[in-house]
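The following block was generated as part of the benchmark described in Methods. Ligand: zinc ion.
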Amino acid sequence: MRKENGKFIPVIVLKGKKMKRFILFVIGISITSMCTAFKWPHGAKSAVSITADDGWWSETTEAQYLERYGWRGTFYLSGNLIDFYPQPQELLERWKAIASAGHELGNHTYSHASYCKAEEKYAVNNWKNVADDISDQEKWLWSKIYGNNPESSIKLPAHTFTMPYGIYFFGSTINTYQEKQVGVAEYAACVSLFAPGARIANFGAQNDPLKVARLRYLINSENIDKISNLDPVVTANEAIDKGIQDNTWTVLTFHTLEGDKSCGYTVTDQQYIEILDHLKSKGTDVWIAPVIEILNYIIQNTPPESWGCTINEDGSPK
Ligand SMILES: [Zn+2]
C-alpha cells in the first residue's frame, strides 16, 4: 500500500512471467469489452427499418399501413417521378401528410437517373451531374414537401439517401469497372453535404452496427418483391428473424403494391400486411424506426475505440 492524496492505494509489484500474464489479462478484458453485443434501446435484440423507394402512389398506402401499427418508415423520393405523375398535386399532398406524420422522407436524387430507361435528362457519368441531381432533390424536398421558400433559413429534417437502383456506383450498367471503383467514394462525397448516411440495396438485409458506424454510406438492405424473391413474405420474415438472432439492424426495401404503375417491383397488400404482422409478433425484441433514427442511435452509441474491433471474443480474426 502507498499513500496518495490521503488515500491508501494498493501497489502490486509484478515481474517476469507474472507481469506478462497480467498484461495479457488486461488486453483480454479490453478486447472482450470492445466486442460485446451492441445494445439496442429498451432491451431490443434487433432493429428494423421498413423502407420504400421512388415515391409511387401505393407507397403512400404502405405508410398508412405502418401507421396502423404505430410505426414510421423511410421513403426515398425522386421528385421527377412525382412531378410527372398523372395526379401530381394529389400525390404531393399525400407525401406532405406522411412527412407531418413523422416518417422519414429521404433523397433518391431528383431525376432517378434514367429510371426504367425512360428519363435520360441527367447523364450520370460524372461527379458534377450527380451532385446537381442530389442537390436538386434536396431543394425539391425543401420547397415542395416542407413548403419553404428561398428566403427561409429553415433546414430540412435530418434524412438519409439512397442511390438510384440501389447501386453505389455512377452511370449505367455498361460503365467500365474502373468507373465503378471510384463511384463509392464519389457518392459518399456528394451525399455527405446533405445526409449523414446512405442505404444501398440487394446486398443482404443485415447490418452489423459497428460496421455501420464506420461505413455509413453503405447501409445494406434487401429488396422485397416478387421479382427479387420466390416468396417475398418468406424472404422478409427470415430476414427479421435473423436480425433478432444476430443482434443486427435489418433493413427491408419495398417498392409499389400490386396494381400501381411501376417497373414491376411489387408485393400485394396482403403480403405487405403479413410481413408487418410477423414483425409485430416479435414484440419488444425488435426496435422499429426510420433509417435516420437508427443510424443516429448507432453513431451516438458506438465509441470510436470499437471501430477497430476486428477480432472475435476468442481472439480469432473476424
Ligand atoms: Zn429507385
